[in-house]
Amino acid sequence: SDWEKRVSRSARRASPSSLAVLITGAAGFVGAHVSLALKRRGDGVLGLDNFNRYYDPNLKRARQRLLERAGVFIVEGDINDAALLRKLFDVVPFTHVAHLAAQAGVRYAMQNPSSYVHSNVAGFVNLLEACKTANPQPAVVWASSSSVYGLNSKVPFSEKDRTDQPASLYAATKKAGEEIAHSYNHIYGLSITGLRFFTVYGPWGRPDMAYFFFTKDILKGKQITVFEAPDGGMVARDFTYIDDVVKGFLGALDTAKKSTGSGGKKKEPAQLRVFNLGNTSPVPVSELVAILERLLKVKAKKKVVAMPRNGDVRFTHANISLASKELGYRPTTDLGTGLRKFVKWYLEFYPGSKKKSAWLQRL
Ligand code: NAD
């Protein structure tokens, strides 16, 4: 059928050494960037996304158009649809799955808890079920989260640190994903790599994240709420620029070993890895606001309040020595440089948000 032709054309490997990758969450922020980066270097890429309405569907559609122009087709469907996954794996012998589909966001879990269970737990299991029976069995690289470190206060966070105190349902489902990965690796010999992202930001970013809605509200002259720790300590994030995360993700795909197949009887155990992908340089949220004020040339109307118990943690900071050693991961973008690129994109994407002026041309 036409659909099958488009699917196999999009995902076809350019050479035996290139990859054939199924990217779930391809219309999402990180998924779109990973798709483009793989396509640019000649890998076969097929996207899958359910285009849910958690945030502005127009932004997801715009990312889809960007990908289609680059030759990446996105199938509209849910990772919980077993028949659809079976069909995709039948049409294309994927070598890798880049799993970025999830219900993201920490605070929304208080409003819609079941969407986290649906996408991050049930959906992940359904995807691994499809990988398990696919021939060949693809190596899986998926997005976990720095939130698994939860209330652990020992910083910087290293992969060996405790992850048994999630501060939100979102974090709990990401932690569950890591345990689920362990079981599929153990029983079925699936090669699985979890990447713990630390507050990823940049062009085409997510409207529910602070850097994004601060930009929007500052430009509108609307008051923004900045959290401070109840004891006056700083609230800070290890903001990581999207291009750095994409390089880490590609490093994980390129070093992923083949799945060994079921039984785990083979001499070599199947690969199971977890890495931090952070920036190793936490920045207080107050400094994030100051950088945005400088870039936007607008003074923010700030309301500073004590952080409520809403699932957020106070501080994140990645130790990245493992990813650096094993994946060649080296983030190079500081927050000022990355936010400049974000703001430039924002003003182009939402042209009504600020009159074009000389300073904008210089960004
Ligand atoms: P995003 O919301 O922009 O992308 C996720 C995409 O998955 C969306 O386009 C959504 O429509 C799709 N999706 C959700 N549920 C689905 C389902 N059941 N079936 C099919 N598609 C579905 O989020 P993002 O920022 O690109 O995040 C990508 C991954 O990285 C997620 O797993 C997220 O939890 C994780 N992560 C992101 C950050 C960050 O700072 N951006 C930090 C830590 C972890």
UniProtKB/TrEMBL annotation:
Name of this chain's protein: UDP-glucuronate 4-epimerase
Whole-protein coverage range: 85 to 447 of 447
Membrane topology according to the record: Multi-pass membrane protein
Spans through the membrane: 19-38
Source organism superkingdom: Eukaryota
NAD-dependent epimerase/dehydratase domain residues: 21-257
Keyword Transmembrane helix: yes
EC number(s) per entry: 5.1.3.6
